[in-house]
Amino acid sequence: MAEVFELFPTPVMRIPGLVSPVAAQALATRLAQAARVANQHSTQLAHTRILGPGDDVEIDAVVDQIGVHLQAFGHLLFGESLRWLVKEVWVNVLQAGGSQALHNHANCFASGVLYLTPSDSSACTVFTRSLGGNEFVFRNTNPGSASGPFCAEKWIAPQPQPGDLILFPSYLLHEVPVNQGAERVTLAFNAVPHRLDAWGYTVSFQS
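Above: the chain sequence. Below: its structure as tokens.
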């Protein structure tokens, strides 16, 4: 009997209904008004300034709810229950016709998106296989080929509901295609563990 091993998989964690739809909409209504930082790639996308711990009481309360899930996700990444800090939070407001360019997040280890409003199916978060790497350069993409976890170049996250959370490694490339629906508001964040220890060589990331 043949066996297939899913060698070195990349974790992505989805937590449905982290906050209630009512609470999510209230956050979206309040925070979307502060999204005045223009996106350099899309004129239909704007962001709030970067917020840190203590800058917004309601956001701090949401971060507290995220905490237990972030610790569980961090255990998948590093094999240990570490203390995690959500070091920065910002809100994205994506209008119809806007998109988010392919990118990843620097100077952090775990990132997340909390969806505050309904998202059109055209504007689901899309994760992309790393450009280059240790894989074959050739591709077999044609009408007769089937896309699966071992050969797919992209993965489209499930269509979210307001209040849903998704967590992913910060290095993972992701984007949002052109939004063909109504205004889409999300809360994004980056997090770091308090330290990493490699056989006694310890690096601290929190003061």
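Residues 13-132+152-191 form a domain with the Jelly Rolls fold (CATH 2.60.120.620).
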